[in-house]
Specification:
The complex is a heterodimer of chains A (240) and B (301). Helices cover 64% and strands 2% of the residues of chain A. Chain A has 240 residues and is mostly helical. A two-stranded parallel sheet of chain A has the order 1-2. In chain A, helix 2 packs antiparallel against helix 4, helix 4 packs antiparallel against helix 5 and helix 4 packs antiparallel against helix 6. The N terminus of chain A is likely disordered. Chain B is built from ten helices and four strands; from the N terminus they run ααααααααββββαα. In chain B, the strands form two sheets. In chain B, strands 1-2 form a two-stranded antiparallel ribbon. The N terminus of chain B is likely disordered. The chains are: A mainly alpha (240), B mainly alpha (301).
């Protein structure tokens, strides 16, 4: 008897809370939700059919969430390779503390790169993007200014890339991990900007009049990063 | 309408669907019991409420998240107003930096307020004397005291946006993108404040404030699922005591519904120090943890 009574009481409370109360306030949205669901089904159907075969000289970053992960992996490969070289051949005019700073950032970016490699291998075996070959010929690693300016470019671009990719991610856990990384990139960006010029840690035009950071879509980010990557990348299907 | 068939179909387009329900176990459990008792589960109204819960981001829950964000922005904006009014900030670069941060927090307040209003919901409000505002620091507070509070506020803000971003998946009006764009600006602020304090720009195991609740987890008091602040009422997810948010020293990252986390110190091929592994990823906080008296909740006037 008591076995029956106990759970029933508990049920009634859980029943009343989440169901009755929200229904009135939110009944409108179930139609919106149903439409969104139907649209998702249609879109999911489309993406499978519209997979394009990449041309021989171009590497596709792929589709769906795995595409987003490989896109992030490509950017982290670039950043990690850059900072590894900064640390291996330090600028001759680094100021006090700057090499120590870059050594830590190099570790963060290598960890990001290797994390994506592990996560993609774990969740989508066989779909891992290949190792990319960086092209750093435009960077003078012996000069502090060249290194800091490039670091700023990469970090600001990384922030904009993760911000823009958020809406392409379908899996909540992947969105959270992207959020966990982008704020660290933003910290890097703010710091390196401040090393270059006082009070630029979040200045215009990087931050707009609404106090918003940049958000860029994958094709635009890859277009900006392409000059530093030997292989030609195609980001047009990322998240689709 | 066959409920379980629909779930199966959703699982095809959204492998995460079962996890969505699982994370709101109370709703899912009540379905099972109800289905036995009545045919209610077959009605569209019931389905709507259930999916509303599971796919929170697609509907009105968005404004709950925005009001939650607005509460934090109002708190920050009023804190910086008081910081500037204290006249403790040295002129030059420090004053310029705090003015810049204040300008952004004000912009976030304006943007979120108008967005919530556009969506037909009452936004949380606050002025220097009413509604959501910062509880003044004790008399005699120093510049260093204010900066320490600023760091905790900014780092908490960064954790807070992460904690609810997933609820905005599929939300209309680019709300997720806007939230992310604010989130990274808060991280830039946090980095700047930390630099001004002589700390590393990222959260790390050697921070002087590492034992502040902002960097830990858990709640001091059990919080409800509804907050009434500054003339508005909004919902927050119930505190899930079985899954307290990670500590900032965490090195286990990327767990999904289907796969275990990756140890970023020991399982990435190359070993990394626990300090570097922890610093490479910021952590989230549950909403109930953020508004707890030990964190932002304790800073409200």
């Amino acid at each position: 008897m008591s076995d029956n009574l106990q759970p029933r009481g508990a049920d009634d409370t859980t029943f009343a809370q989440p169901l009755y109360t929200p229904i009135k306030r939110r009944s409108f949205f179930m139609y919106a939700g149903a439409t969104a669901g139907a649209t998702a089904l249609v879109l999911a159907g489309c993406s499978k059919d519209s997979d394009t075969t990449p041309t021989s000289s171009t590497i596709s970053l792929g589709t769906g969430d795995v595409g987003v992960l490989n896109y992030a992996y490509a950017l982290e490969q670039l950043e990690a390779a850059f900072y590894a070289k900064v640390v291996a051949t330090p600028a001759t005019d680094f100021q006090t503390g700057e090499l120590a700073y870059f050594t830590e950032v190099a570790a963060h970016e290598a960890i990001h790169r290797n994390f994506f490699k592990a996560a993609i291998t774990r969740d989508a075996p066989g779909k891992l993007l290949q190792d990319l070959t960086p092209n750093f010929t435009s960077i003078d690693f012996t000069k502090r200014l060249s290194v800091l300016t490039t670091a700023q470019t990469f970090e600001d671009l990384g922030v904009a890339a993760y911000n823009g990719a958020g809406i392409l991610i379908k899996t909540g856990a992947y969105l959270v991990i992207a959020g966990q990384i982008v704020s660290v990139e933003a910290r890097h960006a703010a710091y390196v900007r401040e090393r270059l010029a006082i009070n630029t840690f979040s200045s215009s035009p990087q931050i707009d009049a609404n106090g918003l950071d940049k958000a860029m879509m994958p094709v635009d980010v890859i277009a900006a990063a392409q000059a530093f990557i030997t292989e030609k990348l195609d980001a047009s299907t990322v998240g689709k | 309408m066959n409920f379980f068939q629909l779930i199966d179909q959703l699982a095809e387009v959204d492998p995460d669907v079962l996890d969505r329900f699982d994370s709101r176990r109370a709703v899912f459990n009540s379905l099972g019991t109800l289905a036995r008792r009545s045919a209610l589960a077959a009605t569209p109204l019931f389905m709507g409420a259930l999916f509303q819960k599971a796919y929170a981001g697609t509907a009105s829950v968005s404004t709950d998240v925005l009001n939650y964000a607005l509460t934090l922005e109002l708190l920050e904006a009023d804190f910086y107003r008081q910081f500037i009014a204290s006249t403790l900030i040295p002129g030059g670069a420090p004053a310029a930096a705090i003015a810049k941060i204040k300008q952004h927090e004000d912009a976030h307040v304006t943007l979120l307020t108008s967005t919530i209003r556009t969506l037909g919901v009452t936004p949380v409000a606050g002025t220097s004397t009413t509604g959501v505002r910062f509880k003044a620091l004790p008399a005699g507070a120093t510049y260093a005291n204010y900066l320490a509070v600023a760091q905790v506020l900014e780092d908490t803000g960064v954790r807070a946006y992460k904690g609810r971003a997933a609820e905005l998946i599929g939300a209309p009006n680019d709300l997720l993108t806007i939230a992310l764009q604010i989130h990274s600006v808060e991280a830039r602020h946090a980095a700047q404040i930390r630099t001004m304090r002589g700390q590393l720009p990222w959260i790390n195991n050697n921070d002087d404030l590492k034992t502040d609740p902002a960097y830990l987890n858990g709640v001091r008091n059990a919080t409800g699922t509804s907050l009434t602040l500054g003339g508005a009422t909004f919902a927050i997810p119930a505190y899930d005591a079985t899954k307290p948010s990670p500590l900032e020293s965490n090195v286990l990252q990327g767990a999904t519904a289907a796969a275990a986390a990756v140890n970023t110190a020991t399982a990435l091929g190359t070993p990394y120090t626990a300090d570097d592994a922890a610093a490479a990823f910021d952590e989230y906080l549950q909403a109930a943890e953020v508004v707890d008296a030990s964190r932002a909740g304790g800073l409200l006037a």
